[in-house]
Design goal:
Layout: E1 2-11, E2 16-21, E3 34-37, E4 42-52, E5 56-61, H1 67-72, E6 77-80, H2 95-98, E7 102-105, E8 110-118, E9 125-131, E10 134-139, E11 145-149, E12 154-157, H3 163-167, E13 168-170
Parallel strand pairs: 7-12
Antiparallel strand pairs: 1-2, 1-6, 2-5, 3-4, 3-6, 4-5, 7-8, 8-9, 9-10, 10-13, 11-12
Length: about 170
């Protein structure tokens, strides 16, 4: 499943919820669409959706008719099956495609496994788990990430001098 949004609050008295989207595709929340709601472990059908401000959707689900029911959904993650993800242009990837890839340098030395994505200001950052509690935060830049091979589950990175030392941490 791919997370496409999070319910952050109830809105009004008719069962609407405020959703912070995790997708750039606003059509994901179209009327009649279905999303999986983790708190109830079931799919809900979208009855209506409208934008509030720049980054919040007000969504009413067909099965949610009042504020009390909407309040129960607060904190829920909204997800879709991976198969329903919109196709991306060549060279762009969903995180679920990258998670678990073996990260190697250009010489083929294993650096660890892609475990998380941190959305940064200027660019995203991949967390690479290196074992023994060590992890490296690598910027998702084309001159650092030189190749992604989904078939062989490998991400190749170009290590500029000092990058590993500056970006490797130990979890306490």
């Amino acid at each position: 499943m791919i997370h496409v949004g999070k319910i952050v609050a109830a809105h009004g008295i008719r069962g609407e919820v405020k959703v912070v989207p995790y997708t750039d595709n606003p059509r994901r929340f179209r009327k009649g669409g279905k999303v999986f709601v983790d708190k109830i472990n079931d799919y809900l059908t979208i009855a209506s959706c409208r934008l509030q401000g720049d980054h919040v959707f007000l969504i009413r689900f067909a099965a949610v008719e009042d504020r009390n029911r909407a309040e129960e959904l607060k904190g829920s993650m909204l997800s879709i099956p991976k198969e329903e993800a919109a196709p991306l242009p060549e060279g762009q990837y969903y995180f679920f495609q990258l998670e678990g890839l073996d990260v190697v340098d250009e010489a083929g030395t294993s650096l660890g496994i892609v475990s998380d994505l941190v959305e940064g200001g200027a660019n995203d950052i991949y967390r690479i788990d290196r074992g023994n509690g060590d992890y490296t935060l690598l910027p998702a830049l084309k001159h650092i990430i030189t190749k992604i091979d989904l078939e062989n589950k490998v991400m190749v990175v170009r290590l500029i001098p000092g990058l590993l030392e500056a970006c490797t941490y130990h979890e306490n």
